[in-house]
Write a structure and sequence with these properties.
This protein has helices at residues 22-35, 45-48, 64-67, 88-95, 107-111, 140-158, 179-182, 185-193, 202-212, 229-238, 251-265, 281-286, 289-300, 302-307, 313-316, 361-381, 410-424, and strands at residues 12-18, 50-53, 60-63, 76-82, 116-117, 160-167, 217-219, 241-244, 268-278, 320-327, 334-344, 350-360, 386-387. By secondary structure, it is α/β, with parallel strands linked by helices. The chain folds into two domains: 12-247 and 363-424, 3-Layer(aba) Sandwich (Rossmann fold), CATH 3.40.50; 251-360, Dihydrodipicolinate Reductase, domain 2 (2-Layer Sandwich), CATH 3.30.360. The chain has a seven-stranded parallel beta sheet, with helices on both faces. Strands 10-9-11-12 form a four-stranded mixed beta sheet. A hairpin with a 5-residue loop joins strand 11 and strand 12. Helix 1 (22-35) crosses helix 4 (88-95) and helix 9 packs parallel to helix 10 (229-238).
């Protein structure tokens, strides 16, 4: 067993969150509490799961940190950007996800995390009036350069040896891929310098800046952002890992489990209706049709690739799939997702399944931020540049090369994740994907 291809996780790791709202403040406050011994990292694969390495009599079950070099939670330093000025303590209190008793013990540390001014364009998030923003008259290229300077300054002031940038901000309006702008790095950079606001989203400024500084970039929303050839080319050019898109938390996580169960049992599906109510800032933004379109595209692609309608047309050839998201302020971060699934079995006889998932969106997302940041850093230290498809386990709409379909089946995704960790740890990747 050799790990000599992976640089050790020495020094501080900076985690810079784009967005300091409910998800980021829950993630940061929770991590600070956990490292004080006042909570458990439930939901985090890197902190809690054991992975088998070796076979037969040589089989051992080890934590991720026992297989590959990983930073401890004490090595993490947090920072953020936002278009609102609240520090991490104020944000956590306003979000009302965590109880006061899970925030106040780390109040002092949270108050020191003051967001840097964010890149803002109201056309991309119409429901939020940004009051803590960089100069909106600047070009996309100039804004990107300011984000680069933010990363360098944070890294120096906090004494970080490495930085990961992770998007945990609102969903932007849907931008379809434009081949003339998005398929060529040269054309993309020209568009940034020309301040092409139609094709260059604010999120792209962060992604390009992160890669320019050698920092892995994770896209936690369904934004187009890094899911274009120009960004793939830049990630390879800079030797930087990228992963996305859209954190897989509640309803879609259930779809990746149930769809796999139906296909495994060869049960047919006629229809799948999904609706959600939520009331946090994410719900407010998604109440705008242009922003919902981005999320809808992300959520609709899941069951088709799992059920394989072309391979099993008798079972899945004509599924009616509908997704709705409704803004309902009284629920705040307590999202409720309803699914009605019309299935059929032996001789075509119909049956129904109803799922009502009452979840706390940020509680489900927080461990994903932790894992994706740590594993993005692992990829960098292992020399894995470009698109990190092995992180699809965490993502609702996994990025994939042109001409290939993403893997959506949660259990297949977990096998891919475990195999990648095994390989980086010098062990055999000994599970196969059908």
């Amino acid at each position: 067993m050799e790990q000599n291809k992976i640089r050790p996780a020495e020094g501080k790791l900076g985690i810079l969150c784009v967005g300091l709202g409910a998800v980021s403040s829950t993630f940061i406050a929770g991590t600070l509490m956990i490292r004080k011994g006042m909570g458990k990292p439930v939901g985090s694969i890197t902190q809690m799961a054991k992975i088998r390495v070796g076979r037969g009599n040589d089989a051992q079950y080890k934590h991720v940190s026992e297989i590959v070099s990983m930073p401890s939670l004490d090595d993490l330093v947090f920072g953020a950007w936002d278009i609102l000025p609240d520090n991490a303590f104020e944000s956590a209190m306003h979000a009302e996800v965590l109880r006061d008793r899970d925030i106040y013990p780390v109040k002092g540390e949270l108050e020191k995390i003051v967001p840097m001014k964010g890149v803002y364009d109201q056309d991309y998030v119409k429901a939020i009036d940004g009051t803590w923003t960089k100069d909106t008259s600047l070009s996309r290229w100039e804004l990107m350069e300011q984000v680069r300077e933010d990363i360098r300054r944070f890294k120096q002031e906090q004494g970080c040896s490495r930085v990961v940038v992770i998007w945990a901000a609102s969903t932007e309006i849907y931008i379809p891929r434009d081949e003339e702008v998005h398929d060529s790095l040269d054309a993309f950079e020209t568009a940034m310098k020309a301040d092409d606001r139609k094709h260059i989203a604010p999120s792209m400024c962060y992604a390009y800046a992160a890669m320019s500084e050698g920092a892995p970039f994770i896209m936690g929303a369904p934004n187009t952002c890094i899911d274009i050839p120009a960004m793939w080319q830049y990630a390879e050019k800079t030797g930087t890992p990228i992963a996305g898109k859209d954190f897989k938390t509640g309803q879609t996580m259930m779809k990746t489990v149930l769809s796999a169960a139906f296909r495994t049992r060869m049960l047919g599906v006629n229809g799948w209706f999904s609706t959600n109510i939520l009331g946090n800032r994410d719900g407010l933004v998604l109440d705008v049709p242009e922003n919902f379109k981005t999320k809808e595209v992300s959520k609709l692609g899941v069951i088709d690739t799992i059920l394989k309608k072309d391979e099993y047309p008798d079972l899945y050839g004509d599924i009616f799939h509908k997704v709705r998201i409704n803004y309902y302020p009284p629920r705040n971060d307590d999202k409720e997702g309803w699914d009605n699934i019309d299935i059929f079995g032996w001789m075509g006889y119909p049956m129904q399944i109803k799922v009502d998932f009452l979840c706390k969106d940020s509680i489900l997302a927080a461990p994903l931020l932790l894992d994706l940041a740590l594993l993005g850093d692992l990829a960098l230290r292992a020399g894995r540049s470009g698109m990190q498809t092995w992180l699809s386990f965490y993502l609702k709409s996994p990025m994939h090369d042109d001409g290939h379909e993403p893997v959506h089946d949660l259990f297949q995704q977990y096998t891919i994740l475990k195999n990648a960790i095994r390989e980086m740890g010098g062990y055999e990747a000994d599970e196969e994907i059908d």
